[in-house]
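In this supplementary section we document a worked example of the pipeline. Step one takes a protein sequence of length 283 as its only input; no multiple sequence alignment statistics are reported here. Step two produces a three-dimensional model, which step three serialises into C-alpha cells for compact storage. The input and output of this example are shown verbatim.
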Amino acid sequence: MPSTSSAGDPVSLLKDLIRRRSITPADDGVLGVVEAALVPLDFAVIRKRFEGDGSYPVDNLFATRTGGNPGGKHLLFCGHTDVVPPGDASLWTHDPFGAEVAEGRIYGRGAADMKSGVAAFVAAVARAGETGGRISIAITNDEEADSVNGIDKLMAWAAAEGHRFDLAIVGEPSATARVGDSIKIGRRGSLNGKITVTGVQGHVAYPDRAKNPLPVLAAVVAALSGKLDDGSAQFPPSNLEFTSIDTGNTATNVIPASAVARFNVRFNDGWTPESLEAAIREA
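The serialised model returned by step three reads:
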C-alpha cells in the first residue's frame, strides 16, 4: 500500500499509519511510512533490527537532523508504532485498520496509543523550520508486548554511536478528560505473570477420579484481582488484572489436567518488581 501522506499533514499521516496492521512485532511497512515522511525533512534515517534475549526480532527506526548549531541542545521524540490485537473485528463499529473518520474523530488501532503521537512528532518537526540544535526521533515496533528488542536496545545503540539527549518527549497518551490536561513525570512499572494449577484429567461423569484445576484457579483469580494499594503522591493505585484463563481443552465432557491464568500488574513507586512478586506469591 503506497503512502499518500505529506510530512506536514498529521491527519493524512495518521491514516497511513493506522492502515498498517502493525500488531506487535509485525511491521507491515509502518516504519517505512515514518521513514518516507522524515526523509524529505532532511532526517538521516537508520533502521535497526534487534533480536535474541528470549524474545522475537523487532524492527526499529532512529532518525536525526542537525540544525545550524551542532553543539546545541539535542531533543528526542520517542514512541512506538506497534498496536495490540483488535480481537473480534466484527465487534468494532469501525474497521480497526480502516482509519475511518466519523464526527471529527479517526477510528482504528493506534489512533490514541500511539500512532497519533508519531504523526504529531513528524508534523511538529516539519513546521519547526531550522533549529539551533539537533532533533532525533526513536521509534520501536515492540512496546505493547515483550519490549525486549525495542527502545532499550535502540537507546543503547544510540549511546554507543555518541548520541546524548538533553530533552525527551514521549508520545504516549496521558490526558484524562481533555488533551493536554496532564503531564506525566514518570511511568508506572509493568509486571507480567502466569499461574498454572495442575490437577488430574478425567471424565466429567466420574469427577471423583479427577481433580479439576478450574475451581482452584477461579478462587486464585478472585483473590488476587484488583487494587493492591491506595496509590502514592504521584501515581494511582497499583492494580492486578487477569487477561486470560486457558486449559487448551476443546472437549465439553473432559475435566482438564491443568489450567493457566495470565495477568499484568501496573504498579506505582511503592513497589519494586521483587517486592511485588513476593507479595503476590504470599497472597
